[in-house]
Amino acid sequence: MSVRVQMGSRVGAFLLVAAVAAAVGTEVAAQEDLPGVELGLFYANTYLPALAVQPFTGTFGGDALAPQVEAIVGRDLRNSDRFEVLDSLPGAMVGPRVDYALWDRLGAVWLVTGQVEGAGDGFLLNLELHDVVYGEVREQGRFRVPNPSDEDFRMAVHRASDEIVRWATGDPGMAASRIAFTMTDNAGNKDVYVIDSDGENLRRVTRYDNLTESPTWSPDGQRLVFASWKTGVARIYEIDRFGNNERMLPPVRGAGDYITPTYHPNGRTIAFSVLGSSSQSGVFTYNLADDCCLSFLSGGPWYDISPTYSADGRWLAFNTLRFGDAVPQVMMMPSEGGTAETLSPYAYGSGGFYAAPDWSPHGDLVAFHGRIDRRGRYHILVANLEDGGRVLRQLTTEGNNEAPSWAPDGRHLVFVGERGWGFGLMIADVTTGRIRSLLGGRQVGLPDWSPALPPT
Amino acid sequence: MIVRRFFVSVFAATLLVGACGGDPPPPPPPPQPDQDSLRRYNDSVAAAEAARRAEAERLAAERAAEAERQRRIREARATLEEMVFFDYDMSEIRPDAATALRAKVEILRASPQVQLRIEGHADERGSTEYNMALGNRRAEAIRQFLTGFGLAENRFEIVSFGEGRPLQQGSNEAAWARNRRGQFVITAGANMINPPGN
Known about the structure:
The structure holds two protein chains of two kinds.
Chain A: E1 14-18, E2 50-53, E3 57-59, H1 66-79, E4 84-85, H2 100-105, E5 110-119, E6 122-131, E7 136-145, H3 153-169, E8 178-184, E9 190-196, E10 203-204, E11 212-217, E12 223-228, E13 235-240, E14 247-248, E15 257-263, E16 269-275, E17 281-287, E18 292-300, E19 304-309, E20 315-320, E21 329-334, E22 341-342, E23 353-359, E24 365-371, E25 379-384, E26 390-394, E27 400-406, E28 412-419, E29 422-429, E30 435-440, E31 444-449
Parallel strand pairs in A: 1-26, 2-4, 2-5, 3-5
Antiparallel strand pairs in A: 5-6, 6-7, 8-9, 8-31, 9-10, 11-12, 12-13, 13-14, 15-16, 16-17, 17-18, 19-20, 20-21, 21-22, 23-24, 24-25, 25-26, 27-28, 28-29, 29-30
Chain B: H1 2-20, H2 35-81, E1 84-85, H3 95-110, E2 115-121, H4 128-147, E3 156-162, H5 173-179, E4 181-188
């Protein structure tokens, strides 16, 4: 069921739909508090093919590592939300050969087999994806995996998992990626931290013991840009992913807060906001490659913040306070400058709070968070810009939720969830509506999902 | 016996000599107090005492005045640094904030060397990045209020800390109300504060 929304906005009608976890048929109470907007709800039972992972084997010294690799791959495939991953069978129940009839009886559509082979100072991971229904190998591949002590070990396995997803669905998974975010310590200071997409390898990247906000990955996943108050005022800095080689961008000491930086998809420029400067407030760009050329893009006496580029770099979505206090709205404009139009369902006098846009790396989807009812709850929303028709989906239904960021697969979002137990990083799958916790019980903020990380 | 007689005769002789030498000169009169010099003396003592007392009083008064001046400078400084608070999600100056800012204006007018950093803060609700902008708007609203009274804009710098520097921990209205605020830091002329009316 979906309800077309009557609105006076010039961007046309919105279709607001609430996505609900596929497995559950419960109906979300219609939210009728947004003036001028009728909300309907919509959920599709997404079909997820059943996938089984046969216990991995090992040769030439790979035996010891096989269970660990298998566990990483199994969890990655679960986290991809593309399959119903069946519980593992004990190795004793399955022979060396693939028994398609057995897996078929267990309901598996896909079967993954793997073998870890010692090779020089590392390992080779041989993977096969079997089509159980047709009883044949669909795809196979060999992946070089370094020693477990190597920094890239888990990422190498994740990259293999992402290939399995691509074999089965045509689109790679997002396991080989990291999430940067801020975490507040007991003294109230925020620094930048990074965690792998599967919740492993949490580590601290900056050590300013000050206020640090809006960490954002470069398109190659090798650098981070963020705002820091370490000199007493907000300025933008870039570091490499280990926290070294810091430089200030742009290297200016003018008045105003320099905040909310983001990279252009070509990695050559950044866009960010300068607020409270005596000259101009709004969105600026700066050329990283040439370390020059601060240029003004949009703004004026109002406040435009949180810019985010479309994947092709031609569009820029941003958050604006130009309609006044308490009603920030999401707008979009050509990235070279031009007329901005409203993306969030703003109607004069109706209120509505929409903030923190992030443009999908695939297609015309912009995620942000908003308070669409008057009960003061913030939820993750996704606007679909396809063909000029805008569709707004609500992904979360409980607690408060903010600051979504797209995974490289263009289908998962990481965001900050506030629940009864506290704050945490959570991951939602836009397609199935599944939500999992990535890092719970910490004072976390402003997550940014990296691109797919290539071998180092 | 001879010794005694000799003594007596010497004594008699002495008496004789004395009786035969005429009237002795009168002893010098004991110094009589001169009334003028006495008065002068007393006057000078009193004057010195008065001067001492006056000096002490003057010093005390000076100290008191200085203490009073220091107290008024401290008070003026506290007035300059007094925080102002905002309504939820708003950057509009509330009436109570306007009163507090008006008091700052008088001090700033009398103290042209003083410069301020205005810090804008937000409570934790809403959006972290939006709250940076909201904090900036609050600081800017304060700056506009102050420059509206003719104070030079370059005496104020503004910085937003968003929700990053709460005054009071906690996720409740009491904490939020304390956290959405403008704070003031004297960045120049801290030793040149003139309380208004001097």
